[in-house]
Design goal:
Layout (H helix, E strand, L loop, with lengths): L2 E5 L8 E3 L7 H5 L6 E6 L2 E11 L14 E2 L8 H13 L4 H7 L3 H4 L8 E7 L1 H4 L10 H13 L1 H9 L4 H9 L3 E7 L6 E2 L7 H9 L7 E6 L5 H14 L3 E5 L7 H10 E2 L2 E4 L5 H13 L4 E4 L11 E7 L16 H12 L3 E5 L4 H8 L3 E6 L10 E6 L5 E2 L2 E2 H12 L3 E5 L8 E4 L16 E3 L4 E3 L6 E3 L12 E4 L3 H11 L4 E5 L9 H10 L4 E5 L12 E6 L13 H13 L10 E6 L5 H9 L1 H15 L6 E9 L2 H14 L6 E13 L2 E10 L2 H17 L7 E6 L5
Parallel strand pairs: 9-15, 9-16, 10-13, 10-14, 12-13, 14-15, 17-29, 20-27, 20-28, 26-27, 28-29
Antiparallel strand pairs: 1-2, 1-4, 3-4, 3-5, 6-7, 8-11, 18-19, 21-25, 22-23, 23-24, 30-32, 30-33, 31-32
The chain binds adenosine-5'-diphosphate (ADP) and zinc ion (2 copies).
Length: 726
């Protein structure tokens, strides 16, 4: 009897067997293809699973097997290589296959909604719309604009407007007024066109030549900021499209990196689908379908786009591959960069990892010959990479975290008509509020963390959970009014800059100031208009932006990274400083970088600034090797969160006892770096192994012990393979 084996999104790490739906004959059952969705009963619910295989028989006794209810798709929604990728990821990350597959679908389809892949809506003028007198829609300018587009230029222009953000509501109003009509037509990939970019520099040309494969191979495109990596991506996309294939580009955060999307749109007259978390369900589904059906020529997306099926994959690019946002930090904890490489192998297409500051993992893989290492060492044109000047701020007075030397340098640039970029990776006004009379410090009630003062909002906020409270005017402990702040955040630095430079615009760029959609884009437009100004911001400023008018970059405080407890701290610091510094002196103005520090002689800082990121990374790799840390050793983390630290630790101790690590090593249970977070106590076990296979065995043991442990039901636990935080 044929059995349908389904992946269902539950926490259980197994597949589920069903009988075929009633009424489906044997031939139809054997013809079913993996990757179709199947509606099935699950307990008292109905769920939508994905068919993994049609099996011969089941371990489940025949009288316990229930029939599935309905086959939802006539053709697989997930391509075979993607199905394999999901199963591989489920194994590798020890995560339930059903949940992994759920990541591969937009929400509606995950719940069984029918797939509209085969048709798309088209709109045309109705008879009434054609006969509409001039100026009839004066009161509804957006509707008038849409209608005019349809009248003048036909459907193509109209689709462009819709894609550019004309809302469905406008469209609906026109439909309701009977001015337009909607029909559906089958989807077909249109032809893509593009115009030639600039002639490549010799280094770019050599890199492009080096990536001369249409089969699987992984390339590290390692080029300093402004060396023309993006231009190489565009050429590779061209190549894929010319061969009739699709290109997938993964970026850290689309909102923060609109420039790649923009450059694609300018270069290519083609269907570009964007997939990111900011999309409404409908838009996400449409983009996903465009990718899957093959209608989209280019797919650009954030980490979850690594799971978007492509009808004709031809290229995968991971831009800023070192960026931590490619790692999902909760639920299904995967690395989109690593999965992109695996996907390239399964789909047999080239994978290009690009960065000015590659991760140590990727450098190691390149060094070992697994990836081809291509370098772009020079910036395009005459633009020079700036040198970094260390500004020793020991004993110097600071205002808002700024030394007089840095303020004067900023003033000099503004006077010369230039722009300055200041980097401070801490938002809010101050990270600590303290009572001067009794020493009280405002802490979060739910986390082992201090509350950050947000002065404009008049609040204290926890940056680790959602907790916030109004700013007190007296000490909650001794009622003294002598409340002082300690430390500096962007809000405070902004206030100081405003009083010092009242005639210039100061743009603050952090999560608080950039909440509105499109805020970054409009900021970029203002800044790139070239007027002298100051950009002040957090990490948000480091992500791939070009600020051609910026000639001075100042780093206010990166010292904390020198003493990070996390072994990845120095790697991140090197990437951050190099990336921020790279924002200066693009175009043809020379740039300069000033780094304020209390530790001008710190050896790590010296290596980075005197020898550059590549040598610095080399040195970090030697240290990792000596300590057998990743990428030389393999790491996993099993974390437990419970109502008390004791129960979290007891649970982990039990897992530790149950495991036979063999050649792997288990460390812990230990309290997590932030022991209490969001009201729960956290502890962890670390597993370290020389070889992947030993780590995998350990992961299997730990997971089955955790699933078997009676406490496992009462507390939360999670496994992180290749964790980025430890
Ligand atoms: P990266 O991605 O390495 O930071 P980009 O591709 O953005 O570098 O290139 C930096 C700047 O140089 C951009 O303004 C880009 O348009 C320009 N550029 C890139 N390649 C060339 C080229 N071959 N000729 C002229 N300009 C180029
Ligand atoms: Zn007090
Ligand atoms: Zn908190």
């Amino acid at each position: 009897m044929p059995i349908l084996r389904l992946a269902i999104a539950t926490p259980l790490r197994r597949l589920f067997d069903y009988l075929p739906p009633a009424g489906l004959d044997a031939a139809a059952v054997t013809a079913l293809q993996p990757g179709c969705r199947v509606l099935a009963p699950f307990g008292a619910r109905q769920v939508c699973g994905v068919l993994i295989e049609v099996a011969e028989d089941s371990d489940v006794p025949a009288d316990k097997l229930r029939p599935a209810l309905e086959i939802l798709d006539t053709a697989p929604l997930v391509s075979t290589p993607m199905l394999t990728l999901c199963q591989w990821a489920a194994e590798y990350y020890r995560h339930p296959a059903g949940e992994v597959l759920a990541a591969a679908f937009p929400r509606g389809l995950r719940r069984g909604k029918s797939s509209a892949a085969d048709t798309e809506p088209v709109w045309q003028l109705s008879e009434r719309g054609r006969g509409l007198p001039e100026g009839a829609l004066q009161k509804a300018p957006r509707q008038a604009e849409l209608l005019a587009a349809l009248q003048d230029r036909g459907a193509a222009r109209w689709q462009q407007l819709v894609a550019a953000g004309h809302s469905a509501a406008t469209r609906r109003s026109l439909l309701q007024k009977g001015l337009i009509e909607e029909t559906r037509r089958p989807l077909e990939p249109g032809a893509a066109h593009w115009h030639a970019g600039p002639p490549l520099s010799p280094e770019q040309a050599a890199a492009l030549d080096g990536i001369n494969s249409d089969k699987f191979a992984t390339f590290l495109l390692h080029g300093v900021t402004g060396s023309g990596k993006t231009e190489v991506y565009l050429k590779l996309v061209e190549r894929a499209l010319a061969a009739g294939r699709q290109a997938l580009l993964l970026v850290p955060e689309i909102g923060l990196t609109p420039q790649l999307a923009e450059r694609l749109a300018r270069r290519f007259d083609a269907e570009i689908a964007a997939l990111h978390s900011g999309l409404a369900d409908g838009a996400r589904e449409a983009a996903w379908e465009a990718a899957r059906s093959g209608r989209a020529h280019i797919v650009i997306g954030t980490r979850s786009a690594v799971f978007a099926s492509l009808a004709r994959p031809g290229l995968i690019v991971v831009d800023e591959e070192h960026d931590a946002s490619f790692k999902q930090q909760d639920g299904f904890r995967y690395s989109a960069r690593d999965l992109a490489v695996k996907r390239g192998q399964l789909e047999n297409v080239p994978v290009v990892l690009g960065s000015a500051t590659p991760s140590l993992e990727t450098l190691h893989n390149a060094g070992a010959g697994r990836y081809r290492h291509l370098r772009l060492t020079k910036r395009i044109g005459d633009s020079q990479l700036p040198g970094v000047d260390i500004l020793d701020i020991r004993k110097l007075p600071l205002r808002g975290g700024l030394s007089e030397g840095l303020l004067q340098a900023v003033a000099g640039e503004l006077d010369a008509g230039n722009q300055a970029l200041l980097f401070l990776n801490r938002r809010g006004f101050a990270p600590t509020l303290q009572c001067h009379d009794c020493g009280f410090i405002a802490n979060c009630q739910h986390c082992d963390a201090r509350l950050t003062l947000h002065r404009a909002a008049g609040e204290l906020r926890c940056h680790h959970c959602e907790w916030r409270m109004p700013l007190p005017d007296r000490c909650p402990s001794c009622h003294s009014p002598a409340l002082n702040t300690r430390g500096v955040g962007t809000e405070q630095a902004e206030a100081v800059l405003r009083s010092r430079f009242p005639d210039h615009r100061i743009h603050r760029v952090d999560r608080d100031s950039m909440q509105k959609r499109g805020a970054m884009e409009s900021l970029m437009n203002t800044v790139n208009s070239g007027e002298p100004c100051i950009l002040l911001g957090t990490q948000m400023l480091t992500k791939g932006h070009h600020f051609p008018g910026v000639t001075l970059v100042g780093l206010l405080d990166t010292d904390a990274a020198l003493f990070s407890a996390d072994f990845r701290g120095p790697e991140r610091m090197g990437q951050l400083i190099t990336q921020v510094a790279g924002r200066a002196g693009r175009a043809n103005r020379p740039g300069r970088v000033i780094l304020q520090t209390h530790y001008p002689d710190h050896p790590l800082l010296r290596t980075l600034l005197e020898q550059g990121y590549d040598d610095y990374a080399e040195r970090l790799l030697e240290e990792r090797k000596a300590l057998q840390l990743p990428p030389y050793g393999q790491l996993l983390m099993l974390r437990a969160e419970a109502a008390s630290l004791d129960s979290a630790e007891q649970f982990l101790a039990r897992l530790r006892q149950a495991a036979e690590p063999g050649s792997a090593q288990l460390i812990g249970p230990l309290p997590s770096p932030m022991q209490r977070r969001g009201g729960r106590f956290r502890a962890q076990l670390l597993g370290l192994a020389r070889h992947r296979s030993a780590l995998q065995r350990l992961a299997v043991q730990l997971v089955s012990a955790a699933e078997a442990a009676p406490q496992g039901k009462r507390l939360r636990w999670s496994l992180d393979i290749d964790p980025l935080e430890s």
